[in-house]
Amino acid sequence: MPQEGCPSALLYIVWVINVFSVLSLLVVMWVRCACNELGSTSSSCDIVSGRCLCKNNVVGRACDKCRLCNCSGVGALSRQCDARTGHCTCKEGYEGEHCGRCSYGYYGFPVCSSCKCFESGTNPQNCDGQGRCQCDERGQCPCKANVVGRRCGKCKGSTFGLSVDNPLGCTSCYCFRRTNQCTQADLTWSQLALPGERILSFGSGETRLNVTNQLHVIPGTEGNVSIASSLLFDAPLYWQLPREFMRDKVKSYNGYLRFRTESSGGRRVFPEQILQTYPLVSLQGNWQLVLEYYPPTLSPDGRYKVKLHEDHWHLKNDPRRVTREMMMIALQNIQHLLIRATHASDATSATLQDVAMDIAAEGSPTSSRVALGVEQCICPTSYSGTSCQNPNTGHYRWYKKNYIVSTIIIDLVGEARRCECNGRSETCNSETGACQNCRDNTMGPKCEVCITGYYGNPDLGPCKPCACPTRLQNFAETCQADRYAECEYGYYGNPSQPGGSCVPCDCDPFGSVHEGCDNQGQCSCKEGIQGRDCSQCAPRHITSATGCQSCVDGCVDVLLDEVEEMIELATSVDVTGIIPAPWPSLREIRNITKVLRYQLNRYHSSVNISQKMIVDFNLDYIARDHLRKAKALLDIARMTFPPIATLRSDAKDVLDLLNSLYIQIDETIAYLKNYAIGETPNISIGVALEEAEMILKQIQMRNFTLVKIGADTELRKAELLLERIKKMDQTNPLTQDIKFRVGDYESKLKEMRERIRVSNLKIDQTGLLMKGNAQRLGRLNDYSDRIRNSRVVIQDQNFNSTQLLRDAARYLSNMGINYDAYPEGTEDSLVRQAIQSLQTSQELQSKGRDLKTMITQQLTTLNKQQQDLGSTRGIIDIANSRLDALHTLMDIHFSANISSGIQHALTRTEETRNNVEGTLEKITSIQTNLTIIKEQARELNRFDNSLLNEIRETISTAKSHTTKGVRLASNMQKTVDRIENKSKDLRDRIEALKRKIKQTRQYASSIRVSLTTDAAGVCTRKYRPTLHPSTTTTITLNYAISTAETDALLLYVGSRNTSDFMAVEMVNRRIEFVWDAGGGMQRITHPLTLLTNTEDVSNDKRWYHIIVNRVGNIGQLSVVPSNSEGRSGMLQPPVSDASPPGFSKMDLLPSDTVWVGGAPPRAYGVLKTRKFSGCLHTLSIDGENIGLWNFTESEGCGACNEGEELVVRHRDEIAVSFNGKGYFKGSNRYQRPKPYYNTVLSFKTLDEDALLFLAVNDEKNQYFSVALENGHVVFTVQFDAQTRLVMTSSRRHNNRDMIQVQATVSNGAIGVMFPDGAVH
């Protein structure tokens, strides 16, 4: 310590030690520090060495000397350095304290030069992020992989687009493998934007969602969408962008797809692990490639910017990395672009907005948005487009066969081939190859045919114009001759005249003989029909169902002659100057009289009813009666309400179950409809259909007859072998022993299966344990990694702790100095301030802990209150819903059942009161009218007698005229009645004539005329029966073959307007039925082989009964020998099959034709035969017999015989079908009485009441009948008006079985056998 009285300057102590033999002398001396105030940091110095604490760049014991600058290097601007830091001022490109090295971005010390590296092409590891990059000592910058040049400013060959963001620097040229030369396209980024926003909302009901690449897609691509669903979605929904974002988007490569998507509502948010399996964006291109984009993080505001570059996308269900080639091929033909819409399974709405896609387009060359990454290839002459992705002009895109499933993905794009236009055009559609702008008057996909109005073969010579009728006035589409001056059949006009043309005849098909007409357009009409188009009946003809019918029958024509004579006489009388009879006035008076009489009668009846209601009306009684009925209804409602409520609940459960089943069915249908849409090469619907059609054609072309014969032979052999084995089984004594051993083996096998099952269970359990152990091992590995990381962290912390200890020691030494400056005892001591700060911090920390504890408790209490409030709100909601349901039930049942009765009673009471009031008003009006009449009568009394006499004379004259008019009217009425009676008799005669004509037609149709070929083997006939569109058809034929022919066309029925047809053929001696109901053709073959009959077809056992039944698209064919009694075991069952579904109605019209032995030329492609052979006896379609003699056209044909037994059976066995609107009337063939009668009637029906049979003798008032009454068969015989016999069966017989009733009359006794076996 300094002594008092010493100078103010600080001193330092010098210890001097002298040793004298044994004594030591310690001398203490005080010396001044003498530190320079400018150069030292303080006035004190080291107490031992006396060295002062100097400032930077100051040296010396007293800090009184400056350090030398040493700025003599080439990098320093001057020799003087900074007086404060001592650093030299360096030139550009130099750095260091003495400017002794090159700075960052420079090279070549001592002459430092700038590297000037292009940051976009230099390896980013050698750049500082501020645009400066370091090169080597030779000035070579470290370039990226696809960059060359001393400064890394040039792309390698076959690369383009130098970019900072590209880790390779430049992008490799792809050009769809057409070339390897390309440059950066001189294009800038523009945007394809989706205007507005799209909003998705949810409602009640069910909406079928599309499924694309296993993703649920919202229907539609534009506007707002509302879908209905009663179930939660198990996966997110997706938006689909519209067509503007599809197809070729190669120019969007390396650009961005921007959008904003929001999903609101819903508490069941999809877990993150679920969302990680569903991409944010899905892009499908060129059928196979399905690319998916997963964002690194979810955007809080829903805005995303997705780069269309291969480094950011993944292949769907494929671990391979997406390559540039995959990305370019996908962008060349985008088919689906989907964006995830929802985030929760119960989301209430979703929004898509601000959708924009970058597309490179021509713009300003100085634009900052250069479309980097878009290549401009130097394409071969056959390609165009920035990347040579499209065919050039004069070329089209050609694909390999089955290119969709090709494993070489470049095949998906196709290749360019020159247009195939036979040298008549150089351009064609770039996608289809159809030629365009054909020359030399040609057209067609390959310019191979002449255009409309020209004829010829372009390959043999030029196309010539049709002169139809002249070259300047050409009406032809095509032609073969050089000149046509007349209209075609079915047209009329004079086309050779200027302005002339051909007009359709439009002849009425029912009134004209044929479709043609003369040059004036007059059609050839049938008898009794007139008009240009034969659509009007001639005079004295009437319209009927079959056309115009003449009225000349010996009666009607006579009446018409008389009427015409009367008209002629009436018109020949000169009535000039004669006052006409007052018939119109009389008729008007008569009509007014009728109206007044009717109104007066209504008035009298209303008065009577009103008086009766006034007398009988008792409101109290009616009200009490209605009240009683209301109480009774209330009691009934109270009794029926509980079971009805239970029934309603059960019905609601059933309805919910049905709705859920319907939803499942609907989803299954939607899934099947969208099955394999957008799948990658595993499945291709188009290829599968092509292969299926090819296989179907191969199957149809194959003849399985020999295979079937061999299979039948093998089947018979197998059956014989089976019979032998069965016999051996029954006779062999070792069978029981073998069966015992087999049973023993089976029991052992069952035991072994059980053990295997137990082992499998244990293996499964072991697998689960192994899986758990693997998971535990994984967790242990994670823990080991964490421990290892923690160890490294601890070592770092130990190192830092050592460093901190060193720093603490240094700070401690400084603290000693500072402690001297601020002793502990003073107020501003640092120790005291530190202690106070520590106490204040501890107090604040304690208060913070208390505050945190209090907030935690309050949050817990608040959460509990929120939970209680939520449960209370749920209870209130449940109670409200139950109250609403109860109110609804009360409104429905009580209002409907109880209040309805009271309301009905009150309504009737109100109506009665209104009627009474109306009646009183009418009575009042009547009284008023009576008063008026009295007043008028008083006025009449005041008239004089002369006026009254005139009135009397006028009335008398009117009476006389009225009497004459009545007499004339009576005579006229008699004449009218006589004419009406004759007209009625005429109508009756016409109806009788119609019935006779109908019966005659039925008899004519029943005439059986057999049909065969003529001597030349030709027979083709056309028929025009009444055909109608129908979903069912029944065709019946009786047929025999007497020659060695194996094939024959029996029948063809087809529509002229559609592809619908039916045909019956014999192919290889088997009957085949082929048909097409609109959905596609189908053919079935009956296995029965037809045997050859005798030459005169007299072998009855070789006639065949062919029956064809069609219901919708299902056809059935039955072929049975016509006389097959006793041979039922040899009969073949019917065969059936179905044509493609979706069409069931055969569109046949009355104008269509039925062919026998022939078909129109357009049907030859689907038929196997074209001519007729054999003998056809009967033909019927839908129960209508077609007389083979009643043809419209015939070629060849002859007659053949029918077997005798077949004729007998047709004559004796008659089956008729009735629909409840018709009947069959016959005559008795036996005219003389017989002692014995036997009548058998077979029938089947489902009606309970029907008249089956009735025989009447009107002269003797006798009849007998067979009828159904309530399902029972009733047999009735009436002998006379007083005697009647009725017999009834004991059981009901209106079922599907054929029932037979037999009645026998023998010597006056009657016996009836019913179906149940009872005899009466």
Overview of the molecule:
This protein is of the alpha+beta class and 1320 residues long. The protein contains 11 helices and 68 strands. The strands form 24 sheets. A 7-stranded mixed beta sheet has the order 19-20-22-28-24-25-27, covered by helices on one side. Helix 5 (619-673) packs across helix 9. The protein starts with 10 loop residues before the first strand and ends in a 7-residue tail after the last strand. The relative contact order is 0.04. Mean pLDDT is 77; it is low at 1-29, 675-683, 889-902, 940-944, 1125-1129 and 1204-1213.
**Arrangement of strands in the largest sheet:** 19-20-22-28-24-25-27
**What percent of residues are in strands?**
15-25%
Rounded to the nearest angstrom, the distance between the terminal CA atoms is 161 Å
Low-confidence stretches: 1-29, 675-683, 889-902, 940-944, 1125-1129, 1204-1213
Overall mean pLDDT stands at 77
Largest sheet: 7 strands, mixed
How would you sum up the global shape?
elongated
How many helical stretches? 11
This entry's quaternary arrangement is: single chain
Helical proportion, percent range: 25-40%
Structural class, by secondary structure, is alpha+beta
For the CA atoms, what is the radius of gyration?
A: 57 Å
Give the tally of β-strands: 68
GO molecular function: signaling receptor binding
Domain Laminin EGF-like: 69-114, 115-172, 419-465, 505-550
Transmembrane segments: 9-31
Domain Laminin IV type A: 184-376
Features:
signal, single chain, alpha+beta, seven-stranded mixed beta sheet, 33% helix, 11 helices, disordered N terminus, Laminin_dom_II, seven-stranded antiparallel beta sheet, 1320 residues, repeat
